Amino acid sequence: MAIPVYSFTGFLDSGKTRFIQETLEDRRFNAGEKTLLLVFEEGEEEYQPEKFSASNVYIEVLDDQDAVTLEELDALQRKYKAQRICVELNGMKTISDFYAKLPDSWVIYQEIMFADARTFPMYNANMRSLVVDKVGGCEMVVFNRVDSSVDKMALHKIVRALNRRCDIVYEDPTGEVEYDQIEDPLPFDINADVIEIQDNDYALWYQDISDDMQKYSGKTIRFKAQVARPKKAEKDAFIPGRFVMTCCVEDIQFMGFICQWKDADKLTLRDWVTVTARISLRYHKMYKKMGPVLTALEVVPAEKAEQDVVTF
After folding, report:
1. Of 43, 72, 44, which Cα lies nearest the Cα of 60?
2. Degrees (nearest 5) of the Cα angle 289, 291, 293?
3. Mode of pairing for the β-strands spanning 177-179 and 167-171
4. Which helix (H) or strand (E) holds 198?
5. What is the C-alpha to C-alpha distance for residues 278 and 273, in angstroms, rounded to an integer?
6. What is the mean pLDDT of residues 89-98?
7. How far apart are CA 22 and CA 198, in angstroms?
8. Cα distance between residue 191 and residue 147, in whole Å
């Protein structure tokens, strides 16, 4: 049976303990499941288990996140017959090192990172590798103590440089919460004579053109892709695309658009190529509707991309 793990990361005094306390007081989250709370970092704030919505939470304070073993974690879960795990991680330790020790049955369900908005830029400047470690894989970043002196744009830019998928939340000193609404600029120049798509940006470009095809009509684009040739494709057509993971491994699928090229029949399936093509928006029988149709200006062999699978 899979044991869900809720991971709470961030630096000392970033608000992790308070959030976990409030979460376990909420009956919508804590409805009686046996919960093991692992604490690897103790700050000034202490847990008040008497306020939890159910007497089902077992707290274990562990001194050394680096020293804990898979066997120790498994034994704790079995000791309390825990149905789920909450973990308050040490901000000065690497998350991936801890995840590597998890028993096979433990599955990360959610990872939330917390930060004091006033000190986060300092951590980013002086402890960049730890910030990358915390922000890179989380699903949400919660900035607290956000007052009028805080530059939200600066915080937004730091997070988006590391993670373009996660939610960003700003909490002011009174507890009022605001979700980040800053529109992210695209990582490529849509107005360039030739729009250059970097390897890691393919999924973002695919998503953007799918959402707003019209703005790409008549544009010229260059990107690296793998070759696909569906049976129904004409002799002079192929699909350059990439394998894209939308949220998890089970969702990986090949994403690309029809491309017309006179030598398409000479291409080999799964070969890597760099395509320079002009985009038009029109009906195509492969889509059975209007869609982006590429007309290749150049197709040349390319080195394999560093990552086979790209994400959003």
Report:
1. 72
2. 125
3. antiparallel
4. none
5. 16
6. 94
7. 42
8. 37
The residues near 76 (Cβ < 8 Å, ≥ 6 apart) are: 36, 38, 60, 82
Angstrom distance (rounded) from CA 103 to CA 107: 9
Going 2 to 169 to 157 to 155, the CA torsion angle's sign is: negative
What's the distance, CA 255 to chain centroid? 19
Q: What's the pLDDT tens digit per position in 12-50?
A: 889 999 999 999 999 999 888 999 999 998 877 899 999
Sign of CA dihedral 10, 15, 16, 17: positive
Distance CA 5, CA 13 (A): 22
Q: Pick the closest to residue 297 from 277, 267, 279, 311 (CA basis).
A: 277
242-301 pLDDT tens trace: 999 865 566 789 999 999 999 999 999 999 999 999 999 999 988 989 999 999 999 999
Residues 6+ apart with CB under 8 A from 175: none
- How would you write 157-183 as a 3-class SS string? HHHHHHCCCCEEEEECCCCCEEECCCC
In this structure, are residues 10 and 113 in contact, taking their beta carbons and an 8 Å threshold? yes
Among 1, 97, 2, 80, smallest CA distance to 38 is for 80
What is the DSSP pairing of strand 272-284 with strand 309-311? unpaired
Task: Give, in order, the Cα–Cα distances in Å from 178 to each of 195, 226, 243.
Answer: 34, 41, 35
For tokens 């605001």, name the residue. 178
Would you say 254 and 243 are in contact if contact means Cβ atoms under 8 Å apart?
Answer: yes
> 146 near 117, Cβ under 8 Å?
yes
